[in-house]
Amino acid sequence: MKKTLLLLSLFLTQIAFSQKGKEKILVTDMTKIKQVANISIAPDGKKAIYALRTNESSETDKLDFDYRTHLWLTDFQTVKQLTRGTESVGAATWSADSRQIAFSRNLKGKSQIFLMPLDGGEAFQLTDFKYGASNPQWSPDGTKILFSANVTFSDLLKDSLINPSKKLPSWSIEKAGFKSNDFLKNDKKVKANPNGSIEEIRAYLEKDVEDKKAKVITRLNFQGESTTEPEIRFNLLFVIDAKEGAKPVQLTKGFWSYNGGSWSADSQKIYASSGRDSLQHPDRELNSSIVLLNADGSGSKQIIAEKGISYNSASPSPDGKLLIATMSKTDWLGFNQIILANADGSNKTSITFDRAANSFEWTDDSKFVYFTASSNGGVPVYKLDVQTKKIEKLSDYDTGISSFDISKERILFAKTEVKNPSELYTADLQMKNAVKLSAHNDEWLQNKALSFPEKRIYKNSKGQSVEYWIMKPANFEAGKKYPLLLNMHGGPTAMWGPGEASMWHEFQYFCSQGYGLVYTNPRGSGGYGKDFQFSNYQDWGNGPTEDVLAATSDAAKASWVDTSRQVITGGSYAGYLTAWIISHDHRFKAAFAQRGVYELSTFMGEGNAWRLTPNYFGGYPWESNIKPILERESPYTYVDKIKTPFLIKHGENDLRTGVIQSEMMYKSLKIMGKEVEYVRMPGGTHELSRTGNVRQKIDRMLRIYEFFERYIATK
User: Fold this and answer.
1) Alpha carbons within 13 A on the beta-carbon side of 649
2) Is the confidence at residue 317, as pLDDT, over 50?
3) Which of 31, 283, 287, 405 is the most exposed place for a label (fewest CB within 10 A)?
4) Ranges in the chain annotated CATH 3.40.50.1820
5) Is the pTM of this model over 0.85?
């Protein structure tokens, strides 16, 4: 690959940090990591609630762990735990007088809402709803709680409480051979009989579906994350008085979902996002609108809606005058943009900002909005001046702010950095004078040897600046040679950097095992603007390969790198990229592809992320002008060129990318007699490496290490 690279060496400010410990980061240290999330400051500004996610030893299997999430309270000087037990607790919301919190917790297999007084007393159950209750939002006046419930299609058809008029959907269910939805009408007089009339036979077949003897699929998006989902589910909004014995009142009705519900400042109205076209099947309706309805469910109307646009994350200002939200085009590769509008949806204005914003928080005076956005390897906090429309970056690119909230005096935030995966901090509203409040990970990290990344930038053949990071082995010794691992992110719109929480342990583990590591954000990554993110259109292979291999080649120039011992890994899209690279380049001694996509035509049917095919490649496999592009861009096309020893992993229940992708790649290589091994994780989904079974996460990490050691261990 003949490319002229302009190499600029930039060093993280954290490089100077000296880690005194010498102990290795162990694979089991992943179970010690505690993560701060869901921060919420009380209305009086004197205290705050946050959630802490931990890994606790399983009560049924001593080798396994259970995820737990519990609430903690801080007065901005100390922290203390509020909730305990085997059942995890969801994010908390404050009452207007700052004396109570509401949160969700599982009870008998369903999420229900509980209230807890903070001046003494136990939490008590507020809801006992048939369909569960989650995402509580306390009204600004402190009298009511908005919540959501997830309801199946069949429940909506049959339940007279949530569908009292027994209405049918206004959109077609798209059942072959039926031009209308009349067949959905439940005639209780027809008895199931396999030997009876056609109506009785249909009743019999329907009973088989109810008894889970068969799945009948008529919808387009029938693949979930771990199993097929023939039935659509709908997110409905309810409200309940914040007192014992209250009954929920249904706000939204019909066969449509309402997401992101939030109260208006006067507690009289509710904002949410929902589909734009009520006659369109929900699986085909990619547009969403901002909906405003009265707090009793009446007067629902779309206040911001546009064909080809998805509007989400509506957040009204405290003074009740304005609204901030995101918009994204749906006809191609969507990219979130910020919009401001009047509270009634009028005077909509787009804000110039070339990053994908989220987590909006208004200041009390409604003059500023704080938010986060992945950018240049980090997740900084930004501040929007509502009057001037100017945006100011408040924190750096070297850390990740995963959750935050603001009051009149301060910002409270969770931060990921190289020296600590997650802690709670407070600072002034310019994010200056930060003070660390928690020490959830300090003790086990105290004597650990950590590796701190060196950041570099080069210009690729398109003239783009591509950022990458090089990490030396922990306990590095001058004059010694070390193997080099290229670790790549998926997405393809993901972004890695020193503040990436999901990779903190993996990076440090391999450095502790004596590997040097290089990771990069090649073209197509998020966090660098719209043009950069879309620059891999119809080019998933060669372009990103140029970028990651250029970074690897530069890292390999270091005197400490043993260039004969280079290895490569990546998951999801990066599983694709791993297979692509080893079919075109043979520098790596071993490769490990995780939950990848290898053949883009079959991916259309295999995975629930199938829209990546038409979005990134311009059409469908049956179109004559698209078929050769998909063939050209599929690693499977070049399977016979693979010479690198190859380990392929897939979760048994991964329907985002689909297990047939990996089966086909493995089987083909095996037929050809190549060095290949295939690992399937029973019950594992696409999220196995992030939120999957902890023991399987440990297994995954060890398999990468063990496989690489077969080929690069010094004799």
Assistant:
1) 26
2) yes
3) 283
4) 451-712
5) yes
